[in-house]
Amino acid sequence: MRRFRELVGVATAGLTARKVRTLLIMLGPILGVSAIVAAIGINESSKGHLKAKLQELGTDLIVVNASAGFGFGQDPVIEAAAVSRVGRLPDVVAVTGTRQLSDIVTVPFTGAEDYYRAFPVPVIATGPELPDTLEVPMVSGRFLNAFDEESGARVAVIGRDLADEYGYLAGESRTIELNGLEYGVVGVLDWVLLEPSMDSAVFLTFAAAVADWELDDPDPSRLYVRAPTNTAMVAKEIPTVVSLGGPDGANASVPTDLLDAQSQVDESLNNLTKMMGGLALIVGGVGIANVMSISVIQRSSEIGIRRALGHSRGTIAVQFLFEALVVGVFGGILGALVGAGVVWGVAAQRGYTMVLSVAGLAGWALVSVGVAVVAGLYPSSKAARLEPLETLRLG
After folding, report:
1. Fewer CB atoms inside 10 Å of the end CB: C or N, the chain?
2. Cα dist from 111 to 34, 76, 121, 176, 290, whole Å
C-alpha cells in the first residue's frame, strides 16, 4: 500500500508539474467524447421532440392525398362524394377535405398588395370539421360552420401566425381582402403541428371558393381522417374506397410511419457520429502517445535517478501508465460534461426536451479511458526500458 501511495504521488506530481502539457494531452479525449455526446444527445432530443409532437397530434390520424389518376391533366383532386364514403368506414370517427387555392393575393388592408403578392398567403378551402379532425382548438372566435357553407358567406378563419402578422386582436371586427373581395375574419385557429403551413393560412368554405374563385366543383385534394382503432388497416382501405375499387385515386399515409423512417435515419446518423467521434478519440490517443513519449525524454533524469535508487522497470512503466489513465479519466469526464452542456444549450434554445443517457455518458467516458491507457502503453514501456547510464546521455 505504501508503494502504491508513493506511485500515485509521483504520477500526480508529474502531471501537475507541467499543467499546460497535461491540458494539451487531455484535449484529445475531451474533444472526442464531447463531440460524440453532443451529437447523439442533440439527435435523440430532436427525435424525442418529434415523438412528443406526434403524441400530441395523435397517432390515429391519416393523411390522404389525391393521386394523378383523378386529375385528368389538371391538379389531382378527390371526388367530393368520396369524403362521405370514407366517413362511413367502421373505424373512422372524423374526416375533412381541404384544397389549397392558387393565384389569390390576400392582404390585411388596402395598399399592401405588392408585399403579399411577392410573399403570398396560402388560401385553403375546407370543410367545417377541420378543427375536430385535427384536434386543434380555436384561439379566438369560431371556425367555419354549416351555415357558412350553405350560404356561401364571405367569412374566413386565419392561422395563429397570420393573426400575429396581421396584428389581429381577439374579438376584433376585421376584414381581409382576397383579390379585392372582402372576407370577414370570424376566428383564429391554433397552431397545427402536422401542417405548419396552416399557421399562416386563410381558411374559407368550399361554397365560397366555388362562387368566388371559379372552382368547377367542391372537390378536395387532401383528406384528413381520424381513426382511433385499426389505423393502419383503415389507411390501406381508403384508396380503394376513394376510387371505388379502381387502381388510382389517393395515397394514404400515417404520420407514425414517417416517424419510423425518421428513426432509421437517426440511427444511421448516430452510427456515423460514433465513427467520427471514435476517429477523434483515436487522434487524441495518438496525441497522448506523442506527448508522453516526449515527456519520457524530458524526464529522463528523473527516471534515471529512480532506477538508480532501486525502482524496477515495472514500477516506472506503471507510473507512466497511471498518468495516461488519469488523463483518460479526467478527459472523459470533462468531455462528457461539455457534451451534456452543449445538448442542454441546444435543447433550451430549440424548445426540445433534453434526452441524455447517463449510461451513455459513462460508457463514452470509459472508452476515453481505454484509448488513453492503450496510447500510454508505448511511452510507459519506453520509459521502463531506459537504463540509468542512458538517461545521462538523454538528460
Report:
1. N
2. 53, 35, 16, 12, 70
Distance of alpha carbon 131 from alpha carbon 350, whole angstroms: 27
H or E element that contains 381 = helix 358-385
Say which amino acid occupies 181: L
Rounded distance, CA 199 to CA 193, Å?
9
The closest alpha carbon to 331, from 295, 281, 275, belongs to 281
CB 317 within 8 A of CB 384: yes
Reading the block at residue 32, the C-alpha cell is 472526442
* pLDDT at residue 71 is higher than 50: no
Q: Are 291 and 385 in contact (CB under 8 A)?
A: no
The two counts, helices (H) then strands (E), for the chain are 14, 11
C-alpha cell at 172: 376584433
Burial pattern 287-301, b for ≥16 Cβ within 10 A else e, equals: bbbebbbebbeebbe
What residue has cell string 397545427? 192
Mean pLDDT of 362-382: 79
Count of all residues that appear for the chain in the document: 395
Q: What is the pLDDT of residues 163-184, one digit of tens each?
A: 999 888 887 888 999 988 999 9
Q: pLDDT for 266-281, tens place per residue?
A: 566 667 766 776 777 7
Does pTM top 0.85 for this prediction? Answer: no
Quick one: which of 369, 352, 361 has its CA closest to 45? Answer: 352
User: How large is the average pLDDT for residues 33-55?
Assistant: 75
Is the separation of the CB atoms in 205 and 144 below 8 Å? yes
